[in-house]
Amino acid sequence: MKKYFNSLRKSVWALSAVVMLASCNDAWNDHYSVNNGKGESAVKTLAETIQELSGSQEFNEARDNFIRTLQTTYMLNGEKVVKGLTYWDLLEEDQFLTVWIPTTVTAEEWAEYLAPMESKDHKKVAREFIMSHIARFRHSVTSLTDERIYMLNDKSFMSKPSQIGIVGYDADSKKQNIRCSNGIIHVLNGKLEYLPSMYDYITKTSAYTKSRGGQVYDYTASLGKWFAKYTIEEIDEEKSVPAGYDDLTNEIKWADSVIVKKSILMDKFGKISEEDSNFVAVLPVPALWNKMYDSIADFFTFGSLEANRDSLQDFYANYTMLTDLFFNMNIQKSPSDSVTSTVFNKSYNEKTKFAYNTYKRPYDDGGLFKERCDSVLCSNGIIYIVDEWPYKDEMLHRRPIKIEAETYSYEDDVILHPRRLISSFNGKELDNVFVAQLSHKSSALTWSVEYKIRNNLKGKYRVKLVIFPNELQKNKPNQFHPIVRYMPEKTYDVLIDSVKKLPRPPFKVSVLYNNDPTKIDTMDLGVVNFSTCNYDKDEKNYPRVSVLINSEVKDAQTQTAEIWLDCIILEPVFD
């Protein structure tokens, strides 16, 4: 076991020497010296010192139970249990540690902590009890103490002169700042409670963590399992101790590596694993979550061309349900008036002119944070549990699809000239509106242009075209024949290596229309029911839905061959 810590011992003592030499404060040296030159006996290790501490009968029992727990709990390295090494072994090594001895632990809790080694849940006992009471390096307590201390499990507590977190120190001042050869001991008047981060709660601890109402809501098999799929482990270089470089790979070797989990999803929804954050989450009870998942997943039904359609459906359904789940309370300007979720995008809202990801008066009756049935306190915020789905489809995924005509691709034989409209029209001020001035490259009156649709979900959409009056050829209408069509999927038969069309025929929705040249005209092409979704797929490989616009002008004297097309809109239809 000693060999396990040899490299660590050298690195830590070297680091300690640098700190000592950099300090010219005699008081500092006296405080931390293992032999302060005043004739005292040599200071003992953390393990030896804890064994010799004594006090009331209650304290002695807590001390003995704490020692037995340390002696029978294997250490963790990330998520791995290191058999053969206990946390008692750790307190005998030459690492600089600070230990807070807990008291007033319930008999039920001690029964779990003192379980035999072969039947103990080492991860749970280590992470949620032992590692909450041990920190790296020495942390003394003075009348000026005011620091955030990170424990071995990465939980943090504010250290003050008389308490850490919300737990006070033992009334006997001699049970604070107890010097040891490899650290410091403080005795608490209680124990430091383990609170999971929101990420930990969702992925692994919700199976046994009780809410404020005394309930257990288990998300580990559904949402937690999904989160875990997109989680990676990596070394926290700031908290790890380096041991030089590997001669072959030139990569850093670590004497003491701190492994942390990182979710690639959190770049989008917020870092709900970080301890210094302050989040509010609104989470439906597990049964409701599963029920809504089935409903929302149907909108993300991909076609047979997509080999990974089941995985994509699962990803986007969960991703959609998380849209407005998390709220970073550190950035809310006036949370009593309104709050915005972590995916709020100001420029997108200004562009769409709709308050997505925004909830008014969340703490009032009927508000998002008010209508809860329970709550769970986490180390980095609070989760409000709800038993009714608090979100509307149109706020999450069933949003209109808008294609700006002037910025989209077009056919080779059609001229697309973005035209900026800055004048008023029929009393309506046009604020930098752009339209696509569509016309044929030659003198032909008829032409066609195809706009391919992306990001449609499965389900019904009402398709509309917004046409501006042609100010260059006033009072001349244009006859349209727009068609919404579904291009049949193609599938590859690996046996005969040929392409064949599926038997399902394409649908077509077409309308013959004369626009009104005196007003901004909105053409309603009717409702189209898309059988599959085409979400987040590039148009080159998935050109399955399109709007084909045909100009069918016959007489240039009475009609214009130009169309000033503003946009194409697909509005979800709610039955």
Describe this structure in words.
This protein has about 575 residues and is an alpha+beta fold. It has 3 domains: about 5-185, FAS1 domain, CATH 2.30.180; about 200-230 and about 265-395, FAS1 domain, CATH 2.30.180; about 400-570, Jelly Rolls (Sandwich), CATH 2.60.120. About 20% of the residues lie in helices and about 30% in strands. The chain contains 14 helices and 36 strands. The strands form 13 sheets. Strands 21, 22, 25, 27, 34 and 36 form a 6-stranded antiparallel β-sheet that branches. A 4-stranded mixed β-sheet has the order 4-3-10-9, covered by helices on one side. β7 (about 165) and β8 form a beta hairpin.
Features:
disordered N terminus; FAS1 domain; four-stranded mixed beta sheet; Jelly Rolls; alpha+beta; 14 helices; 21% helix; six-stranded antiparallel beta sheet; 575 residues
Which helices and strands occur, and which strands form pairs?
Elements: H1 6-22, H2 26-32, H3 46-52, H4 57-71, E1 74-77, E2 80-86, H5 87-90, E3 97-101, H6 107-113, H7 122-128, E4 134-136, E5 147-150, E6 156-159, E7 163-164, E8 167-168, E9 178-180, E10 183-187, H8 198-205, H9 223-229, E11 231-235, E12 241-245, E13 252-256, E14 259-263, H10 266-269, E15 279-284, H11 286-297, H12 309-321, E16 326-328, E17 338-340, H13 346-352, E18 358-360, E19 374-378, E20 381-386, H14 393-396, E21 401-404, E22 414-421, E23 424-425, E24 428-429, E25 433-440, E26 446-452, E27 459-468, E28 479-480, E29 483-486, E30 490-493, E31 498-501, E32 508-510, E33 513-514, E34 521-530, E35 545-552, E36 563-572
Parallel strand pairs: 3-10, 15-20
Antiparallel strand pairs: 1-2, 3-4, 5-6, 7-8, 9-10, 11-14, 12-13, 15-16, 17-18, 19-20, 21-36, 22-25, 23-24, 25-36, 26-35, 27-34, 27-36, 28-33, 29-32, 29-35, 30-31
Helix pairs in contact: 8-9, 11-12
